[in-house]
Amino acid sequence: MQVGLMHYLVLSALLFCTGLYGVVTRRNAVAILMGIELMLNAANINLVAFNRYVTPAAVGGQVFALVIITLAACEAAVGLALVLAAYRSLETTQVDEINIMKW
Amino acid sequence: MSWVLELLKAIGLTVVIFTFLAVVTAMIGVYLERKIAGWIQARLGPKHVGPQGLLQTVADTVKLLQKEHITPRRADVLMFNAAPVVVAVAALLDWVVIPFGTLGSRVLIVRDINIGVLYFSAMASITVLGIITAGWSSNNKYALLGGLRSASQLISYELPLALGILWAAMVAGTLSTVGIVEAQIQQGGWFLFTLPPPVGRLGAPFGILAAVTFLVAATAEVNRVPFDLPEAESELVAGYFVEYTGMRFALFQLGEYGEMFGMAALATIMFLGGWAEPHLAPYLWVAVALGTFVVAAVILLTARHSLIIRPILILALLTAAVSLLMSVGIHLPSIVWFLLKLFTLVFFLMWVRWTYPRLRLDQLLNLSWKVLLPLGLLNLLATALVLTLGGR
Amino acid sequence: MGELGVFIILALVTLIPAVVVVTSHNIVRAALSLVPSFLGVTGLYILLQAEFLAGIQVLIYVGAITVLLLFVIMLTEGGTGVRLRQVNEQVPLGAMAAVWLAFVIIVILTRTVWPIGAGSPPPYNAVAIGNAFMTDYVLIFEATSLVLLVSLIGAIVTARGEE
After folding, report:
1. Is A96 inside a domain boundary?
2. Which residues of A touch C85 (CB under 8 A)?
3. Is C155 in contact with A81 (Cβ distance < 8 A)?
4. For the whole model, what pTM was predicted?
5. Which of A85, B16, B53, C48 is deepest in the core (most CB within 10 A)?
6. Residues in a beta bridge with B200
7. Can you give the residue ranges of every domain in chain B?
8. From chain B, which residues contact C within 8 Å (Cβ)?
């Protein structure tokens, strides 16, 4: 049996939902960011699979995936800088303890 | 079922290259390091074990193998055991894309991946993870601090390393290592001194700047002096591998030496022409041989320390032999040229190690971010400008 | 047939560490499990004949983003190894939502007919992507580099604190 487009789509759906479970249930802010990275990877697999099977001669999907990787790096940097700044003044990284607007 | 054959061939070649490189880089590298250190410091290196001390590394390995495996209490055992493996494997995996020469019409390389140098720099960036894991899982505050210091040094120097690699890939027009060497063969000169025509020899400053950027970044990437603050014995009790004993410590050292040789190999491929032999007319080769004899005679007559004479005489003899063979017209196999250039660069790296003092952490990071990164970027820009104006 | 075997191995290497990432109580172990997951995705890119993307994935995700996550974990309270409760009270609801969403997505995807295109991928992936960035997608390229610059300056200023 050949590996078709469907295999990659199912895999990326499972990876996406694993990341989603991580974002929804974890308490540590850094763990939430890890779940977001998993979801971005799932989207990338989807894009590259579509590129390979639907329009193999063009590279648009891979260009899109490269841009997503770059933006994921930016977003991880900014998000982690925010976590560090919040930890410095609130002394916690558990997101359900950061629930009042003024400290 | 041809894929089974391909898979077995790939696994077999990888095993061969791992064991071969483990022997060559660890044994010969450590022996060379100690002998060259002795020569620079006006003393003899190891000379008791085996003829001329050649079996010293074997003795060291046997000593390390019979030491006790200590795991610190409350250390994370899985990560503690995995960290040296990650460092050693990542350092050896980047030899997959190094071509050793040509045999007939086949290039001696494990796999000519068409993103070769990108793969190399990706493998070099995996060692950072092994170091952080080693530092954290030792359950030791000095190891953790040393690991974080080393990791910040390594990620800071990945950028000038990648810029040096990008320069060579841009000038050659391809990311494959075999392609870079063949571009140098086609243009008839090393990238260190010449750029593609019509720029020619005017491109020497760009090549030298790119090579210097790459070599400084490579020295910092393998944690060698003058950048070895994270692993110096007097700083933080030798940093991230303080809790490792016996064979796991040897695996870290194997990773470090393997990666140093790998960086030197990539530098010979990118800047010194890989396996290509220098094109000189026969009378020039004879002139080189005569010049070597003159230098050797001068040193023999004027040197006072007998310790310095012998290695220089050996080197002079080697150069004279190679030049005479080339002038007669006997072409040495390309793998010999590759190894000659590789060991010249390794000698240069070891020479730097035993000459310069260690840099402090903030001096190290300043050098990377404020000096090498702008220089690398400007070099890339200027070379692109020159190549475009030259009509490429 | 060999391709299917490799795909299944890579899928397991991607999904099982991903489950460890979202359920482990030791946050450093969770961050380190991201590495085999990303390497599995790299293998999938190579299987999809996108080698340049695979190289960039290892270089950036494994070499930079994971290191950044580990640094921040060690600079905040995760590095002390204290046994805090790592999951909140929405676990059953979150699990149900994730499973249901996976089911819906898979049903929708398998029932659509995708137009499988003819043609073959370009021989040199990096060259094709480079050309595309310089001709068709140059605006995205410039905008992305601007976003990179702005976000890195912002991250440095935010993390530095008041001095």
Report:
1. no
2. 27
3. yes
4. 0.90
5. C48
6. B195
7. 2-277+354-389
8. 1, 3-4, 7, 76, 79, 113-115, 118-119, 121-123, 125-126, 128-129, 132-133, 136, 144, 148, 151-152, 155, 158, 175
What is the C-alpha separation between B188 and B87, in angstroms, rounded? Answer: 38
* pLDDT value of position B267: 94
- Please tell me which residue of chain C has the smallest CA distance to B162: C59
pLDDT band at C87 (very low <50, low <70, confident <90, very high): low
Residue extents of the structural domains in chain C: 1-81, 121-163
A77: nearest CB among C88, C128, C155: C155
B–A touching, 3+ CB–CB pairs within 8 Å: no
Structural domain count of chain A:
1
If you measure CA to CA, which chain B residue comes closest to C63?
B125
Residues of B in contact with C58 (CB under 8 A): 122-123, 125-126
Please give the average pLDDT of every successive group of 10 residues along chain B, which has 392 residues: 80 83 79 85 80 80 84 82 89 88 83 89 90 85 84 91 93 91 87 80 87 93 78 65 80 86 93 83 80 83 73 80 80 86 91 87 90 94 89 68
Rounded to whole angstroms, how far apart are CA atoms B209 and B114? Answer: 26
Judge if the upstream peptide bond of residue B84 is cis by omega within 30 degrees of 0: no
Please indicate whether, in this complex, the C-beta atoms of C133 and A63 are within 8 angstroms of each other. Answer: yes
Nearest of B293, B278, B137, B158 to residue B213 by alpha carbon: B158
Here the ipTM equals: 0.91
- Identity of residue C153: I
Question: Closest approach of chain A CAs to the CA of C69, in angstroms?
Answer: 7
Per CATH, domain C1-81 is 3.40.50.1360: no
Token readout for B215 is 């070599």
Nearest to A6 by CA among C108, C1, C122, C3: C108
Indicate the Cα dihedral angle C111, C115, C116, C117, nearest 10°. -170
CATH code of the domain in which A31 resides: 1.10.287.3510
Q: What integer pLDDT is reported at residue B224 of this predicted model?
A: 80
